[in-house]
Amino acid sequence: MTTGPVPKPTPETLPFWESTRARAMSIQHCLDCGAAIFYPRSYCPKCTSSDLEWRPVSGRATLASYVINRRPLPVFEVEQQIIALVNLEEGVRMMTNIVGVEPVPTALQLGMALELDYDERGDQVLPVFRPALKESE
Ligand SMILES: [Zn+2]
Fold first, then answer.
1. Whether residue 43 has a cis bond before it, omega within 30° of 0
2. How many CB atoms lie within 10 A of CB 91?
3. Separation CA 72–CA 37 (nearest Å)
4. How far apart are alpha carbons 19 and 102 in whole angstroms?
5. Residue 62 and residue 93: Cα distance in Å, rounded?
6. Mean pLDDT by 10 residues, the chain (137 residues)
7. In this structure, what are the phi and psi dihedrals at residue 85, rounded to the nearest 5 degrees?
8. DSSP string, 56-120
9. Could you report how far apart the first and last alpha carbons of the chain are, in Å?
10. What order of strands is seen across the sheet that includes strand 52-56?
């Protein structure tokens, strides 16, 4: 549990925040062209269909890029924060925080395997990612 700014759900993002609160993060999929869609919206950005369905993600992702924020806003309890773009296995990119790893470049390899976790913040639950455990561990 951390403190800090909490995103305000809109009608389009409310199902997303409900899914993270249930710890089953879901994104939209287009029923016409099959595209995975993030961020939430009312129609498919590829084919403009409004025939969309929410489906839980696998939770697997890879690290696409990151910045280490050494001076987060004072409202954050944490001293340092890794702000990252991750590629979900579903094929969409999401801005998130990386947790469970030292905020140093040597610990963060682009393309490294990540897995979904959740961080309670106020009355929301934010999706965060941590390094994936190896199969053998
Ligand atoms: Zn579509």
1. no
2. 11
3. 29
4. 28
5. 10
6. 72 95 98 97 96 98 94 64 96 96 94 97 92 72
7. -105, 130
8. E---EEEEEEEEEESS--TT-S-S-EEEEEEEETTS-EEEEEE-SS-SSGGG--TT-EEEEEEEE
9. 26
10. 36-37, 26-30, 52-56
Q: Which of 134, 132, 130, 126 is nearest to 16 (CA)?
A: 126
Distance of CA 50 from the midpoint of ligand 1 (Å):
8
Calculate how far, in angstroms, residue 110's C-alpha sits from the geometric centre of ligand 1. Answer: 29
> How far, in Å, from the CA of 29 to the mean position of ligand 1?
8
The predicted structure's pLDDT at residue 64? 98
What is d(CA 72, CA 59) in angstroms, rounded to the nearest whole number?
26
Q: What does residue 105 show for φ and ψ, rounded to 5 degrees?
A: -60, -30
CA of 46 to the centre of ligand 1 (A): 5
Q: What pTM, to 2 d.p., does this model score? A: 0.87
According to DSSP, the residues that pair with 82 across neighbouring strands are 68, 98
